[in-house]
Amino acid sequence: MAKKVTTGRILDVLSSGRSALRGRDERVALRVHVDPTCPRDAALAVKGALVPQRPGAVVEVLGLEPAHAASEAPDVALVLAGDRPCAGLVESYARSGVSVGVVVEGALDAPRLDLPEQAERLVGVIASSSADALPERLAAWLASACEKPLALAACFPFCRRAVADSLVARCAAENAVVGAISLIPGSDFPVMCANQAKLALDLAAAYGRDVEPARAAELGGVIAGGLVWRAVARAVVGAVPGVGALLKAGIGYGGTLATGNALRLRFELEDAPRAERGQAPSPGDARQQVLLDPAPADECYVTIGGGRS
């Protein structure tokens, strides 16, 4: 039985690898509305962050006017607010089911909205008085709001840490539940290992990696780590009888966090030399690339396809 279960889990992991690659290569569309009176430092911070590193990402920049009615709905919308009213624009996105983030200097600067509760949940306020802190806060909101997190992270490196943290936390919570409710001794191990293997593949996809021999080494490391955590769980449960489910849940959670964070750190260390070299974004067509162009203070901050917004 264990052998059959293990074989099934292996096939499940392989299927998850294909799903991770499909998720990485999905088209992800962001629409940014810029109030010309918004803080220039904030506009420059967003400008620097929203540079796609892979084909398949679309960043459309507009003023505060609504997009054309025939335009495709974006996956996520952003509004860089200033002195001009933008509540109607924000409400229009939320009412149509699109998550929309409002970038302001302080929470009190956010527009007052009149929305039903369900639509109001789609609105996020990204408040930061520091341009240096803005990308991290923006990334956290995008990771929670975008329904294509793997494509988001693969295309926009500043989102990778936030997406990775979300993936690791979710997998750790799942493995904590598996450890707590397993009734047959040893039955939790293949499930936890499969979950961690899927996590490794998702993290690789989020960091823009392909399926290659290095992934096999990572999966082998995940299984080896799982064996270590299993041995720890057995030893601790044997030493402290009566609280086995609680201890196994805690070890499943902590072990998954440790494994996921180790994988994340490895990818970040691999990416560091590229960032230091200023490696250029992957090539794409005019819609996929945000072409940066220095603009006067009273103009919007990007050029797309040769036309200034």
**Share in β-strands:** 5-15%
Please mark out the parts with pLDDT under 50 across 5 or more consecutive residues, or reply none.
1-5, 280-309
CATH architecture annotation of the largest domain: 3-Layer(aba) Sandwich
CATH topology of the largest domain: Rossmann fold
How far from one another are the termini?
62 Å
**Biggest sheet, strands in spatial order?**
2-1-3-4-5
CATH class of the largest domain equals Alpha Beta
The number of distinct structural domains comes to 2
Q: Helix share of residues?
A: 40-55%
- The helix/strand order is HEHEEHEHEHHHHHHEEE
Biggest sheet, open or closed, and with what strands and sense? 5 strands, parallel
What is the SS-derived class? alpha/beta
| Alpha-carbon Rg, integer | 22 Å
Inertia-based shape = elongated
How many strand units?
8
What is the residue-mean pLDDT, rounded to a whole number? 80
Give descriptors for this structure.
54% helix; single chain; 309 residues; 5-stranded parallel beta sheet; Rossmann fold; 2 domains; 3-stranded antiparallel beta sheet; alpha/beta; disordered C terminus
Describe the model.
- The strands form two sheets. This protein has a five-stranded parallel β-sheet, sandwiched between helices. Strands 6-7-8 form a three-stranded antiparallel β-sheet, with no helix packed on it.
- It has two domains: 2-23 and 162-277, no CATH class; 27-147 and 279-308, Rossmann fold (3-Layer(aba) Sandwich).
- Helix 1 (2-24) runs parallel beside helix 8 (188-206), helix 5 (134-145) crosses helix 7 (160-181) and helix 9 runs antiparallel to helix 10.
- It has 309 residues and is an alpha/beta fold.
- It starts with a helix and ends with a strand.
- Helix 2 (40-49) links the parallel strand 1 (28-34) and strand 2.
- The chain has ten helices and eight strands.
